[in-house]
Amino acid sequence: MLPADPATPVGATPAAPLPSAASQDASATEPLRVLVVEDDKVNQLVVIGMLRQMAHQADCVADGVEALAALDKRSYDIVLMDLRMPNMDGIEATQRIRRLADPVASIPIVALTANATTEERLRCAEAGMNDFISKPFRRADLKATLEKWRPPGHGGSAGGPPPRNGPAAPR
After folding, report:
1. Between vectors from CA 128 to CA 120 and to CA 68, what angle results, nearest 5°?
2. Nearest by Cα to 132 from 155, 149, 157
3. Which residues lie across from 7 on neighbouring strands?
4. Are 102 and 164 in contact (CB under 8 A)?
5. pLDDT, tens digit, 9 for 90 and up, residues 74-102
6. pLDDT tens digits for 8-34?
C-alpha cells in the first residue's frame, strides 16, 4: 500500500497511482498476435521485448520456411519479416504467403531491414509487403506501424484492409 499523501484531506480516498507505460499500452488496445521472422538472436530478443512491453503476443521463427509453417498452424494479425535469412529469405517468403488462400494471403507483412535504400523498398513492394521499418528502429516506430496495420474491428485505430500488392509510400 502506498503511503498516505499529506495533501489528501482526512477521510478522502487517495488518488490511484498513475499506470505505467506498459499498462497504458495494454489498456489502449487489444493485443495483437505478431509473427516475428528474424534469424539474428539479438534482433529477435529486441523485437520480442518491444512487443511484450506493448502487451502484444509474439512468436518468433528464424526463416521463411518456418514462417510458412507457423502461418499454417496459427492465426496472426501481422508479420514482421526480416529480408536476409538462411533457407528462405523474406522476399520469397512474402511471395509464397501472397499465393496462399485468404485470410493468410492478405495478412499485413512489414519488412525489417538495415538496408533502407529505395531499391530495397521497391523489392519489398513488388514481393507484396505492406510496409517497411529500417533497423535499428525505435519502439515508437514499431508501435505506430503496428497500429497502422491493426486489423479492422481489433480495437484501436485500423489501417483498413491491407493492399495485396505493395507497401505504403516510402517515407
Report:
1. 105
2. 149
3. none
4. no
5. 999 999 999 999 999 999 999 999 999 99
6. 333 433 443 334 444 444 435 789 999
- SS3 for 122? helix
For the chain, the structural domain boundaries read 25-148
**Who's near 13: CB < 8 A, 6+ residues apart?**
none
* Dist CA 112 CA 91 (whole Å): 11
Structural contact between residues 150 and 133, judged by C-beta atoms closer than 8 angstroms: no
| pTM summary value | 0.75
Whole-angstrom distance, CA of residue 95 vs CA of residue 114: 20
- What's the pLDDT score for residue 114? 86
- Report helix, strand or coil for 59: strand
Nearest residue to 162 (alpha-carbon basis) of 147, 149, 153: 149
Q: Per CATH, the architecture of 25-148 is what?
A: 3-Layer(aba) Sandwich (3.40)
CA 106/CA 25 separation, integer angstroms: 26
State pLDDT tens for residues 108-164.
999 998 887 899 999 999 999 999 999 999 999 999 999 999 988 765 433 333 333
